[in-house]
Write a structure and sequence with these properties.
46% helix; 839 residues; 5-stranded antiparallel beta sheet; single chain; coiled coil; 4-stranded antiparallel beta sheet; transport; elongated; alpha+beta
Length: 839
């Protein structure tokens, strides 16, 4: 245990710091780090190097090479830089490399050197050139801040949603600031810069002078500044050799340290962890590394070669040509267990487990001591927590064995934390492997989340490992295996050395019907890579037509899209394709396409009936569909044309079409309608009133109501209206007029073809019983009872029913008998019934 703490360095009385090796770097660097632009992503991310040929003291002999390595030094990409001079490199939160050029253009590359996109920081930056740049991270995404040759700042807080902000001018600024950085306060990015002994804070509205509280006197310049990983704290290095540390808001001072070195450092970064005991700053010079905090002494390390610092959530990564190390504050659980002469419960439990493996009775003594103090649960939890913070698997196993040993003596210790830690450590050890090269700590892993870690493995094309992790952690398929397989398929379609048939078959064999996988997304990627035929083959495996059709349209395979839409049975989808085809093809080709698809043609006709009538007429003409063409002209005669001549002409065209369709009935009916329209116009001219667009029956009725009986009869003869229908029309019209005298004359004009019961019914409907009785006597025997009941003559109705000896009629009369008034009539019918039964 003493050897284990040999690399622990105390910083004050409350904290220890240790530096251990993550990897031995085997990368073959052709240049020193000092001659390169360097960018390393946080959370164990990749490293990008670009030899800087634009330095004035070292003229370029050849084009530089942009190289990307994993954190373990495994090459990921290498490409010859053919663009303009680069001022700064940086990684986005999505592990995209941002290369800021001198002209203000930012080029974005993927992890494997694939060009993604580019954007400009504005015309002002282009005109004044870029002096310096910073890539920073906020809760909104990754941002870029630019210092131009005019000593003005421009920034965008999120390169994914580019919105440029030109920061206010600093009064009297004639040269570049000695140092500057971005500070995020209240969810807004600010610029903090130093000009001589003065500090200025730039926000979107104003430039404010700020003063660090408690700063040692005599400062004439600030040489370096650093913001903590969480943007909560700020460190300033002055030309007097003092390092001031405080809150990023510059309202509170934490401490100040005199390092007795006035040379400006190469780098200065914060080194702290969540719930840190001692917040510290790491300062690097050419051959010296210093850790300072709120303590009179510092921790110093000798650097054997050029090194680069990468701030992390819970420490600092330090890499050079040969090694990659991690410097951090020793976590509390590890400190309590491994500190020399520690009597913490976790330390005793670890010793007890080791003695148990030696089959020594001391194991029982240590265990009893912990149990007597009632600290066994705490001891187990300490060992579990410490295991998470250890980098080496052997020490992890030792601590977890101790925790497992202690659990055996507890009745109700929940196993969740132990099981979860075992799972997390197995995942962490897998990604820390040299060939993977993602040296995440437990704290970083929890902050990053498993989903983001899987995304980063996918970005590195480590699909088998990502799938193994998903299966090991039993993640839902949609979030885990399915998603990764989809990414693998999207990568697979980019392999242009494999035939389309082989790629499609391999993808289908691997994916099958895996839930959550969209073949249309994979096909879209294939199409984006210029492999249209492969995209079509992949779409054959897509079960959802709604996903197939839009991509087929995008690929200009409209006829295939139409077939797929029809097969789906989704009319909205068919209409979408039809409208696309209509805009894409000329009119003739479009109609020919429809003729080959009867379902689509029928749906398009329905659409045209409501939206495009002229197109509908063209369709009927092309198909020689005279029947529908005739119907179309009839609708058109009523829909748009107001002049009678135009309407008659449209009807004539319809009649001709019906004759061509050999539909003589429709043709004759259309001709009759034309005659009726002309007659109605003549009636309007001669009699006034409105006759146009009335039906034939309504025209006759209107004439009768107007007293034009002879005209009505003539119209009936002209249009061969049957007598029965004419009598009904005249009867109804005269009753509505209450012209009872004319009605009586009409009834006597000749024998009624409809009988006289309708006269009774109409009169009663007009509440005229007197007139109704006149016609009741003329009703034939078979309807006599019904007529007498209508006029309320119950007694006579009963007599007629008895006389007819009709059971149905007698039952009908009985059903109309009510109360005492009709009692005698009811008795009479009952007696007649009884007599009939006796016979």
């Amino acid at each position: 245990m003493d050897c284990y703490t040999a690399n622990w360095n105390p910083l004050g009385d409350s904290a220890f710091y240790r530096k251990y090796e993550l990897y031995s770097m085997d990368w073959d660097l052709k240049e020193e780090l000092r001659d390169c632009l360097v960018a390393a992503a946080p959370y164990g991310g990749p490293i990008a190097l670009l030899r800087n040929p634009w330095r004035k003291e070292k003229p370029a002999s050849a084009r530089p090479v942009l190289e990307i390595y994993s954190a373990s030094g495994v090459p990921l990409a290498s490409l010859l830089w053919k663009s303009g001079p680069v001022v700064s490199l940086g990684w986005s939160a999505e592990e995209e490399l941002l290369c800021v050029q001198e002209d203000g253009v930012v080029l974005v590359y993927g992890l494997h050197g694939d060009f993604r996109r580019h954007f400009s920081m504005g015309n002002e930056v282009l005109q004044n050139r870029v002096l310096d740049a910073r890539i920073f991270h906020t809760e909104f995404g990754s941002g870029v801040a630019i210092l131009t040759g005019a000593h003005r700042f421009t920034l965008s807080a999120n390169v994914g949603d580019l919105k440029l902000r030109r920061m206010p001018e600093v009064p009297g600024l004639q040269s570049a600031p000695s140092c500057w950085t971005t500070v995020c306060q209240d969810r807004v990015a600010h610029i903090l810069l130093a000009v001589g002994p003065d500090l200025y804070l730039l926000d979107h509205a104003a430039c404010s002078a700020v003063t660090p509280p408690g700063l040692a006197p005599g400062v004439s310049s600030f040489l370096q500044m650093a913001v903590s990983f969480t943007y909560r704290h700020l460190a300033l290095f002055t030309d007097t050799g003092y390092i001031w540390m405080g809150t990023a808001s510059l309202k509170e001072k934490l401490c100040e340290f005199n390092c007795n070195i006035r040379a400006p450092p190469k780098q200065m970064v914060w080194c702290s962890r969540p719930r840190s005991k001692e917040r510290a700053v790491v300062v690097a010079w050419e051959r010296r590394l210093m850790v300072v905090g709120d303590a009179p002494e510092s921790i110093q390390f000798v650097l054997d070669e050029d090194s680069y610092l990468v701030p992390e959530l819970d420490g600092v990564r330090v890499f050079s040509r040969s090694t990659h190390e991690f410097l951090h504050e020793v976590p509390v659980a590890s400190e309590e267990i491994f500190k020399i002469a520690s009597m913490a419960p976790g330390a005793l439990l670890l010793e007890a487990q080791k003695e148990y493996e030696k089959e020594s009775q001391k194991a029982d003594e240590y265990l009893r001591e912990i149990q007597e103090l009632g600290q066994l649960p705490q001891a187990v939890q300490q060992c579990i927590e410490a295991a998470g913070h250890e980098h080496w698997p052997d020490m992890q196993k030792s601590l977890l064995r101790a925790a497992s040993f202690g659990k055996c003596f507890l009745d109700r210790f929940p196993p969740d934390s132990f099981v979860r830690m075992c799972q997390d450590l197995r995942v962490l050890n897998a990604v820390r492997d040299y060939h993977i090269g993602i040296p995440l700590t437990y704290s970083q892993y929890k902050q990053l989340t498993i989903q983001v870690l899987l995304d980063r493995l996918v970005l590195r094309r480590l699909y088998p490992l990502a799938i193994q992790i998903c299966e090991y952690l039993r993640l839902p398929e949609v979030q885990g295996v399915s998603r990764i397989l989809a990414h693998w398929a999207c990568y697979k379609v980019q392999q242009k050395d494999v035939s389309d048939e082989d790629v499609a078959r391999a993808i289908n064999q691997k994916l099958g019907d895996t839930p959550g996988v969209s073949y249309s997304d994979i096909a879209a990627r294939a199409y984006g890579c210029g492999r249209t035929e492969l995209a079509i083959k992949l779409l054959e495996y897509e079960p959802r037509s709604g996903e197939q059709v839009p991509l087929l349209l995008k690929m200009k395979r409209s006829k295939l899209a139409l077939s797929k839409a029809i097969e789906s049975g989704d009319t909205d989808l068919v209409f979408t394709v039809l409208l696309h085809l209509k805009n894409e093809l000329n009119r003739g080709d479009f109609f020919m396409t429809l003729r080959n698809q009867p379902v689509a043609l029928s749906l398009y006709r329905q659409f045209c009936k409501h939206q495009e009538l002229e197109t509908l007429k063209d369709l009927y003409n092309q198909d020689d569909n005279h029947q529908e063409l005739g119907s179309f002209h009839i609708r058109a005669s009523y829909a748009a044309e107001e002049r009678i001549e135009g309407r008659v002409a449209a009807l004539q065209t319809a009649a001709d079409a019906f004759y061509k369709a050999k539909n003589e009935f429709a043709a004759k009916a259309t001709e009759d309608q034309m005659r009726l329209l002309r007659l109605q116009r003549r009636l309007e001219d001669e009699l006034g009133g409105r006759f146009l667009d009335l039906s034939l029956h309504d025209t006759v009725t209107t004439l009768i109501l107007s007293g034009q009986n002879k005209r009505a009869e003539q119209l009936a003869r002209d249009f061969r209206i049957p007598d029965k229908r004419l009598w009904w029309l005249k009867l109804t019209a005269l009753a509505d007029l209450e012209d009872w005298e004319e009605l009586e004359k009409f009834s006597k004009s000749k024998k009624s073809p409809i009988g006289y019961l309708p006269f009774v019914e109409i009169c009663m409907k007009q509440h005229n019983k007197y007139e109704a009785k006149k016609y009741a006597s003329r009703v034939g025997p078979e309807q006599k009872v019904k007529a007498l009941l209508l006029v309320g003559d119950m007694a006579q109705a009963a007599d007629v029913a008895i006389e007819h000896r009709n059971e149905a009629e007698m039952s009908l009369v009985l059903s109309h008998c009510t109360g005492a008034t009709d009692g005698a009539t009811a008795d009479k019918i009952q007696r007649a019934r009884a007599q009939a039964q006796k016979k």
